[in-house]
Amino acid sequence: MSNEIREKDHEWVKTFHSNFDRLLTLLEKLLEKRQPSAYGDELLTDKEVAYLLKVSRRTLQDYRNNGILPYTQVGGKILYRASDIERTLMKGYKEAYRYKRS
């Protein structure tokens, strides 16, 4: 690709926008066909949960082993329900308070 400035009526720009619009339409169709999650709850992989909680996958294994984080195992695949993750986080939630000086 050269360093030339491309105007909005340039063929390359038109092609880019056309391809982008086509991809957007395909994505919208995919989202429309999306099946609801099992039992109405989203299932997350260990990789997704590790990313959301900002911990390593090894730490998740410790959480499972210590009974901190509920999970389900199907074959070799570990899955977490989003509601279980939220419930676990809320159990550890501590309300902020102000130190009152007398």
Classify the helix fraction into a percent range: 40-55%
What is the CATH topology of the largest domain? Multidrug-efflux Transporter Regulator, Chain: A, Domain 2
- N- to C-terminal distance: 70 Å
CATH class of the largest domain: Mainly Alpha
Side-by-side strand order of the widest sheet: 1-3-2
Number of individual domains: 2
> Mean pLDDT, as a whole number?
83
Order of helices and strands: HEHHEEH
Briefly note the structural class of the backbone. mainly alpha
- Beta-strand residue fraction: 5-15%
Low-confidence stretches: none
How big is the Rg?
A: 23 Å
Summarize this, please?
It comes from Phocaeicola salanitronis (strain DSM 18170 / JCM 13657 / CCUG 60908 / BL78). It is built from four helices and three strands, in the order αβααββα. The chain has 102 residues and is mostly helical.
List descriptors.
3 strands; 102 residues; extended; mainly alpha; DNA-bd_dom_put_sf; three-stranded antiparallel beta sheet; 2 domains; Multidrug-efflux Transporter Regulator, Chain: A, Domain 2; HTH_17; Helix-turn-helix domain-containing protein; single chain
Q: Describe it for me?
A:
There is one protein chain. The chain has helices spanning 11-33, 46-53, 57-65, 82-91, and strands spanning 43-45, 72-74, 77-81. It has 102 residues and is mainly α.
